[in-house]
Write a structure and sequence with these properties.
Layout: H1 3-13, H2 15-21, H3 25-30, H4 37-61, H5 64-79, H6 92-98, H7 103-130, H8 134-161, H9 165-192
Length: 201
Amino acid sequence: MTAADLIDAVRDDKQTELSRLGSSKTLYADTRGEMEPDAIHAAAAAREAAAVDTFEAWADDESDDAAGLFADAAADADGRLGDADPADRAFHMHEELDGLETTVERLGGLVGWTLVDKKVKEQLTGFFTGQADPQTASTYRSAGGEVVELREDAADLLDSTCDGDDDWDAAEAAAVAVVAAAYDDYVETLEELGVNPKDVC
């Protein structure tokens, strides 16, 4: 297996979940139905703050290239926090990520995180485009580009780190579990709000 194979496998396995996470209902869930700019920014900041906490902890616990990659991921997320105060929000996805212990699991988990987060960034871009705020839309579009670059770096490190099928299986399982946790969060929140999570909009 290669990292490209792993990414394709996760996308295939979680195609429906990723599609629904790429709908506007993700922002609706994140804001608890408050679809206005300040709430959107606060929800986005909550995601970045959670990423900073997770990836900083990993960087402190790892060494060599993995530590550097996770530190870069944390720094990128910190740079995207901006001036918005993060909403008071916990994420099942980060609970899953925080439970990963080995380097290959964390690299796989990071890939899973990027697959979810890129979907969120696309929705943020679309929201502010619809608000006739091209500058903010461009900021979130650029943030999505950073996430893709991070996925590519994680893929490169997976290719050089994984040693045999057991490592690849562990990395793939971690990535799948992260996407599944994000989707479970999405479903639970929408159901609490009385919204059908299965209709993609």
